[in-house]
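If your schedule permits, I should be very grateful for your opinion on a structural question. The matter concerns a single protein, recorded as an amino acid sequence and a row of backbone structure tokens. Could you please explain, in whatever detail you think fit, how the structure tokens follow from the sequence? I set the record out below, with my sincere thanks for your time.

——
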Amino acid sequence: MELFISVFAAVFSVINPLGTVPVFVGLTSNDSAINQKKTCFWTAFNVLCILLISFFIGSYILNFFNISLDSLRIAGGLIIVSSGFALLTGNFTKHKGMKRSSVQADLEKRTEISLTPLAIPMLAGPGTISLLITYRQIHTEWTEIVIILLAVVSITITVYFILKSAPYIVRALGASGINAVSRIIGFVVIAIGIEYISNGVENWVTRIFNLG
């Protein structure tokens, strides 16, 4: 249970579906209720696929490029910290590249948004992917793997219901309320990123001194 809660809290905080709510509402404002539900489902499904692929295939990518787990922790931690600062300063959408004129023009022409930009990079970005790869490297027992997979599935179900409730969330919290919640989550995300960086640096330094 402790592992489930730990994985759920960490991955959910980095994904931050609440930060995606205003973007989702803006992109689907002209869609019918049925199309909005379809977009919610396929966005959550795409997020699930991305997380599962990262979890199971990520280690092979690390081996192919000869990247150590500690290096991944440091790099992933830096990405997570930058995402946290973006949430803390209210620049989450800009940090995800959604404010560029070329991106905006592309979105106006796009009819399918569940994969991009919603699933990736808004929800399952590099920070989330690095987290899942790290979990797979650390937790090798089949019971731990099952628990992590259950946490991932639970997260995607939660993402679906949050996006489905996006119009109600916007009306209830308003832009200022969502911004306040995102800032709190941003602080947690920064702490998660720093923890990953410190663990990577500590292991790195220990290995260097042992070799010396």
Q: What stands out?
A: The two ends are 40 Å apart (CA to CA).
